[in-house]
């Protein structure tokens, strides 16, 4: 894990320890590299590669740090820094790649978050000023924060509703900068400001020509992939317990690196920088011998990509294989022109994915016939089903459904490259959220609704009910278009307090079809799939959060479809970040180009009339590939693939039913008043027996329970020093339990 941390304080707080007005030695994160010092220090913590940390200077008081994969030259970074000095913060987010930019202009600090939320920024009040970081857990250690049970309830009840989550985190007092915003600090005072232009709710934004918009997506995608290919290559030296080349600048082999901050959950405190052996703590959750052994067979040198047979991963693999080989500065094993892309396909032999899985594998084999691809198929049985190996894994910043399937993802990623491309986020940035139908009605473009509602009528097959689907969907879209944001939030708050909140969630998992899912999404705010298993007290607290948000909603100037699409992207980006931490493979970097700022902006420029058409995502990606010279695609390319995911989830519950029942015998979620243990055990048993239940909701509950146990079993903190905080972040009402 890698993160950056720093703070800004006024003159009275400079050098002071928490709770003290007198100057004193500063605390310092373990295994950190100082990028610049007082009065507003900034550190890079963890196994950052040398080319992932760049600092440029315009003058003695003006400097910029860019951490991550950024395709801009040093001159371009300086130009952006000078523009940001004048207030144009958007220039700090306009370069290709995925990165975090921190600009220091005199006494003013600006930390820019990304548009999707895959690279978040957190902040907290500390020592007479403000501390910030790109991970919430180090800040929780610094300020000794307790667990925020109300946030966990909102995360389970309304995961994709920013109104319920607000700017909170699982830790009390730790705040998150919303996507598309920047944190501006001056002498400890903080301000969160947006850097993206806002559109009017009364007048539709000007729409680009379809051809021009698709061309913009193609250019952004090609540049995003090219940025990854142009980077220096890295390879991990296995067996000697050392870090990547150049990692020594961030901490010696005998000190705690970034993984130590996320825990050795049952091991000694040596993994936190107390004299452990070389290599200890260098892998997620390192400490036990079986954890270290699992990471000795890590990623291959060079660039790899997922190849599932779907449109998103297939597009990235073909773009990476089709672009000319770009020589880089070899670090470790050198590669250059003529490099073959490593394409990885995961073959689940344990779940019954049916015809969907077979067709995906066949499309992957067809795509992999490209001579510039080296195809690897990772076959796995019951050991790679969801919910396997729950008792082993790293601690993440927050809970997420990826925790339940981390072992499954880790097996796939371990067979990939040291730089591995994944197609996460393509659906959220390219597809039209169903609420965008209401946006079209607000713009009086009713004719564009004909094709999407007709496709929904055919989705559930021919029946008498399908004749009424177009009218039902149209009425729901018109109702949303005529409902104000405040009324929508108040209605959602009232629904949480009604018995209907415990009914099956339409469209979640296997409990509903595309029509039910679309109808449920045609609202300003909706409950998540796990809400039906929460207690009445937990739902009541979330309802209060929504009511408070409704009171503050008078000045909102956003359309329902635009807002719901942005919220869905933000939630997916947060889940992707949990996946990066939970399934992290030592020495590997996951790259999700669809979540890059440049790609998100290009996709947002697509006309709504194009987005809502059936098969729009596959059509846009076909055009992207055709513009790059790739026109021959396998039959069925772009077909949806939800059935295999649901089948794997159900098979995983059946295979791990015993451990799951034990997990919820005396759950911490029940101690916190969020769930009833008996109800959750009954739901797990029913799902294992084939009862149609929202499987995604069960995955969220299991992940939250596992995350809580790992957090309470964690030892040590991310900091050292004379007054280093050592207490764990725990909730007042949740007593500590033995570790897993």
How do you describe this structure in short?
With 740 residues, this protein is of the alpha+beta class.
What does this molecule look like?
There is one protein chain. By secondary structure, this protein is of the alpha+beta class. The strands form four sheets. Strands 3-4-1-10-9-11 form a six-stranded antiparallel beta sheet, covered by helices on one side. Strands 5-6-7-8-12-13 form a six-stranded antiparallel beta sheet. Strand 14 (300-306), helix 7 (311-322) and strand 15 (341-348) form a beta-alpha-beta unit. The radius of gyration is 25 Å and the shape is globular. The model is unreliable at 13-25, 238-296, 326-337, 501-511 and 721-740 (pLDDT under 50).
Features:
740 residues, 6-stranded antiparallel beta sheet, disordered C terminus
Tell me the overall shape. globular
Number of strands: 19
Separation of the first and last Cα atoms: 22 Å
Q: What would the average pLDDT be, to the nearest integer?
A: 81
Helix content: 25-40%
- CA-based gyration radius: 25 Å
* Strand order, largest beta sheet: 3-4-1-10-9-11
| Residue windows where pLDDT falls under 50 for at least 5 positions | 13-25, 238-296, 326-337, 501-511, 721-740
Major β-sheet profile: 6 strands, antiparallel
Total DSSP helices: 25
Strand content: 5-15%
Structural class based on helices, strands and sheet pairing: alpha+beta
Secondary-structure blueprint:
Layout lengths: L1 E8 L18 E2 L2 E5 L5 E5 L6 E7 L2 E9 L3 H12 L11 E9 L2 E5 L9 E5 L2 E5 L2 H8 L5 H9 L4 H4 L9 E2 L4 E6 L2 E6 L15 H20 L59 H6 L5 E7 L4 H12 L18 E8 L5 H14 L5 E8 L25 H9 L2 E5 L4 H5 L5 H7 L7 H10 L9 H13 L3 H13 L16 H8 L14 H16 L8 H23 L6 E3 L5 H8 L3 H4 L4 H12 L15 H13 L1 H7 L4 H4 L5 H12 L6 H19 L5 E2 L20
Parallel strand pairs: 14-15, 14-17, 15-16, 17-18
Antiparallel strand pairs: 1-4, 1-10, 2-19, 3-4, 5-6, 6-7, 7-8, 8-12, 9-10, 9-11, 12-13
Helix pairs in contact: 3-16, 5-18, 5-20, 7-20, 11-13, 11-17, 12-13, 14-16, 21-24
């Amino acid at each position: 894990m890698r993160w950056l941390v720093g703070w800004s304080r006024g003159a009275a707080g400079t050098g002071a320890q928490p709770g003290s007005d007198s100057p004193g030695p500063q605390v310092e994160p373990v295994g950190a590299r100082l990028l610049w010092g007082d009065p507003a220090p900034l550190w890079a913590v963890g196994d950052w590669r040398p080319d992932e940390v760049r600092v440029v200077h315009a003058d003695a008081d003006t400097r910029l740090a860019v951490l991550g994969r950024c395709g801009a030259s040093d001159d371009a970074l300086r130009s952006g820094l000078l523009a940001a000095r004048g207030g144009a913060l958007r220039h700090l987010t306009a370069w290709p790649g995925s990165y975090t930019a921190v600009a220091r202009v005199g006494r003013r600090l600006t930390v820019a978050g990304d548009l999707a939320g895959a690279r978040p920024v957190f902040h907290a009040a500390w020592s007479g000023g403000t501390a910030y970081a790109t991970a919430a857990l180090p800040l929780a250690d610094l300020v000794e924060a307790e667990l925020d049970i109300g946030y966990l309830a909102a995360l389970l009840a309304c995961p994709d509703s920013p109104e319920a989550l607000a700017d909170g985190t699982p830790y009390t007092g730790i705040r998150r900068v919303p996507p598309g915003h920047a944190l501006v600090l001056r002498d400890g005072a903080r301000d969160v400001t947006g850097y993206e232009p806002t559109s009017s709710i009364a007048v539709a934004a000007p729409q680009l020509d379809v051809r021009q918009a698709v061309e913009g997506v193609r250019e952004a995608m090609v540049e995003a992939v090219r940025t990854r290919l142009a980077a220096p290559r890295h390879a991990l030296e296995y067996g000697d317990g050392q870090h990547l080349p150049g990692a020594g600048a961030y901490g010696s082999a005998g000190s705690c690196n970034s993984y130590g901050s996320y825990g050795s959950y049952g091991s000694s405190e040596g993994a936190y920088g107390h004299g452990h052996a070389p290599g200890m703590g260098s892998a997620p959750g390192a400490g036990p011998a079986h954890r270290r052994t699992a990471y000795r067979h890590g990623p291959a040198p060079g660039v790899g990509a997922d190849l599932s047979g779907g449109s998103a991963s297939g597009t990235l693999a073909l773009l990476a294989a089709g672009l000319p080989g770009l020589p880089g500065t070899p670090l470790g094993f050198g590669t250059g022109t003529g490099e073959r892309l490593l394409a990885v396909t995961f073959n689940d032999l344990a779940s019954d994915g049916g015809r969907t899985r077979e067709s995906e594998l066949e499309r992957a084999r067809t795509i992999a016939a490209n001579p510039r691809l080296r195809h690897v198929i990772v076959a796995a049985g019951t050991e790679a089903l969801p919910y396997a190996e729950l008792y082993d894994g790293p601690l993440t910043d927050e809970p997420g459904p990826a925790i339940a399937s981390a072992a499954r993802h880790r097996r796939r990623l371990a067979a990939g490259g040291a730089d591995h491309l994944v197609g996460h986020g393509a659906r959220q940035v390219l597809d039209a959220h169903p609420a965008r139908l209401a946006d079209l009605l607000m713009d009086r473009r009713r004719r564009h609704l004909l094709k999407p509602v007709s496709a929904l009528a055919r989705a559930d097959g021919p029946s008498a009910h399908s004749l009424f689907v177009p009218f039902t969907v149209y009425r729901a879209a018109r109702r949303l278009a005529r409902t104000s944001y405040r009324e929508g939030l108040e209605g959602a708050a009232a629904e949480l307090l009604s018995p209907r909140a415990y009914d099956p969630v339409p469209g979640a998992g296997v409990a509903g079809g595309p029509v039910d899912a679309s109808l449920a999404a045609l609202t300003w705010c909706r409950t998540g799939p796990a809400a039906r298993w929460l207690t009445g007290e937990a739902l009541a607290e979330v309802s209060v959060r929504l009511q408070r948000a409704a009171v503050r909603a008078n000045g909102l100037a956003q359309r329902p479809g635009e807002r719901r699409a942005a919220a869905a992207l933000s939630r997916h980006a947060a889940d992707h970040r949990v996946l990066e931490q939970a399934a992290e493979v030592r020495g590997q970097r996951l790259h999700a180009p669809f979540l890059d700022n440049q790609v998100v902006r290009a996709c947002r420029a697509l006309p709504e009339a194009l987005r809502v058409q059936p098969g729009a995502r596959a059509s846009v990606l076909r055009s992207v590939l055709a513009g790059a010279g790739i026109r021959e695609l396998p039959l069925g390319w772009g077909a949806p693939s939800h059935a295999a995911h649901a089948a794997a989830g159900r098979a995983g519950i059946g295979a791990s039913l015993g451990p799951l029942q034990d997990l919820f015998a005396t759950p911490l979620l029940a101690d916190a008043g969020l769930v009833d243990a008996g109800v959750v055990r009954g739901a797990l048993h029913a799902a294992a027996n084939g009862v149609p239940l929202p499987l995604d909701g069960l995955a969220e509950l299991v992940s939250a329970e596992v995350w809580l146990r790992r957090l309470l079993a964690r030892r040590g903190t991310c900091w050292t020093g004379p007054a280093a905080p050592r207490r764990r972040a725990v909730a007042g009402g949740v007593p500590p339990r033995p570790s897993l």
